[in-house]
Each structure stands twice: as structure tokens, then as C-alpha cells.
Amino acid sequence: MRIEQLEYIAAVTRLGSLRRAAEELHLSQPALSETVRNLERELGVDLLERKRTGAKISDEGRELLPHIMSVLDAVDRLRGAAGDQHRIRRMVRLGTVNTATVPLVIPTVREFRDAHPLTQVELVGAQQADIHRGLLEGAFDLGLVNYLRGDDLPPGFETTELLCGRPVVCVRPDSPLAALDAVDADSLLAEPLVVMRSGYVMHRFVHRLLRGRTPSFSYSTDGAEMGKLMVAEGLGATVLPDFSVVGDPLERRGAIAVRPLAGDATDVLLVLQRRHSGSVPRAVRDLHELFVHNAQTYAAATRRLTES
């Protein structure tokens, strides 16, 4: 058994196919497949499920994946302890819901790169359920997800609360809603509404807010970034956590504005999660700590803006 064989299995799991793993690893697909088959023969287990449409991790392989990731983490720690500063470090993979992007993620990744110039960071926008699955399977090292206050947290994860915000209405400054001090549900229903797709926390919140009523016209989009762009282009309004909008480049340039929801005191939480593990690579720990620090800085800056 060789370390690269385990790395190949991890790559196939993370990327979802043998072909994409071969492209990333700069190997031919037959060479990658044969290397994996040698490991399967040694272990006596079919790690991949092979079909005409491609290959992906099998159920048996998924059960062994936590052990494979533990071995790779241990190898990382050994190499780090030996002072091997010239190798290319294992990539840190971050799954993030799209409401967590610009104001917090970009500064954090920038600072992490300064401290870890040889470590690659892969950012993947995904829904909460996909992030949880990726954390359990080792496809993600960390996950940024949203909850509404009172939601049950899934077992098996270490959860750190980063930000607590409120749902707000995101509008263009020339929208009729921008003239209101606060926007109620009836006013929201009168305007075209950009709604997050089913599976996002804000989709669930808006459905609860409107109590099953439908707006005059609505769009469905797969993430806050596209929603904010649609608002800036005058297509309608959307409802997002305030931490997704305040400090966003579009908001700083005056292309979008924020109005509170009348009579609503719902807390939206942005949390950072990782699976429970006996050991965590140093790069993952450092990225985790940067998120915590920058979330505190962002929250303090937002409070100052609100109070001024």
C-alpha cells in the first residue's frame, strides 16, 4: 500500500469521478484506474463503483474513507514535523453556502494565503445538505452553513458560531421599498421577489414569512451572489441575512440597499463546522482560527456602522 493510492481514492471521492481525478492529478485515466485496482486487490474491497457512465466511490469505500483520511492527515503531520517546507501542501477544501461569501470569506482566504503560501484553498458553493455530506466523506475540511435560531444541529460535527444576524430586504436604492423605514410582508408581496432555491435556509425563512402567499412575480436562484446581482439590475428584491449584504461590494458602491423586516426578530446564524476527528491538520486549524477572528472583526465593524 502506498500513500499516493490513498490520495487517489480521496481525489476520486472529492471530485466525484475517475476522469476529473485523473485530470487534477495529471495522470492518464487508465493509469489511475489500475493503481486503484491494485489497492482494491490488496484490501479485498471494491473501493469504486464502476459503471459505463464513470466511476465513483462505492458504499464499502465510503465506510473506509474516514480511515483513509486519518492516514493522510497523519502523513501531513509527519511531513510538517520533518520541516518539509518545499512540498505542495494538501489542499484545504471549504464548502460554503453562498450567503457567506464576500464580506467574510474573501478577507479570510487572503490572510490565510499570506500565512500559508504553499497551501491551496478550494472554495465550493453548495447547499447545506451537500456540505454536511462532504464533511462526513472527507470531501470538505470545513463547512460554512446557515441555521435559523432554534434549528437542531446535526450530530458528528464540531460547530462554531461565527455571526448572528437578521433577515433583511435587499433592494435597489430607487425601488419603492427603499423609501420605507421597514418592509412588511404585504409590501414585499407587491414587488417581484428573487427567492433562494429550495434547500437553502433563506428559502425556508421566506416561505414562513409569507405564510404560503405568493408574490406578484418571483425568480428562483441558486445562491445569494446571483440574487444580489439581480437586485442591482432592477429585477426585484430579495431577502438575505444582513451579514451577507452589509459590506458587500455592491452595497458599498450603492448598487443595492438594505431595509429591515417589520415585526421580525428571527436570528440567522452563520456557523463553521468540521467533522469530529482525533486530529486536525495545522492548515485547517489555522483557517478555522482566521474565520473566528475575522467574524469578530466584521461583527464589531457592522455594529459601529449601525450605531453611527
UniProtKB/TrEMBL annotation:
GO terms for molecular function: DNA binding; DNA-binding transcription factor activity. It holds the Pfam family HTH_1. Residues 1-58 form the HTH lysR-type domain. Signal peptide: none annotated. InterPro entries: LysR_HTH_N (IPR000847), LysR_subst-bd (IPR005119), WH-like_DNA-bd_sf (IPR036388), WH_DNA-bd_sf (IPR036390). Keywords: DNA-binding, Transcription, Transcription regulation. The keyword Nuclease does not apply. GO terms for cellular component: protein-DNA complex. Belongs to the LysR transcriptional regulatory family. This is LysR family transcriptional regulator. The lineage of its organism: Bacteria, Bacillati, Actinomycetota, Actinomycetes, Kitasatosporales.
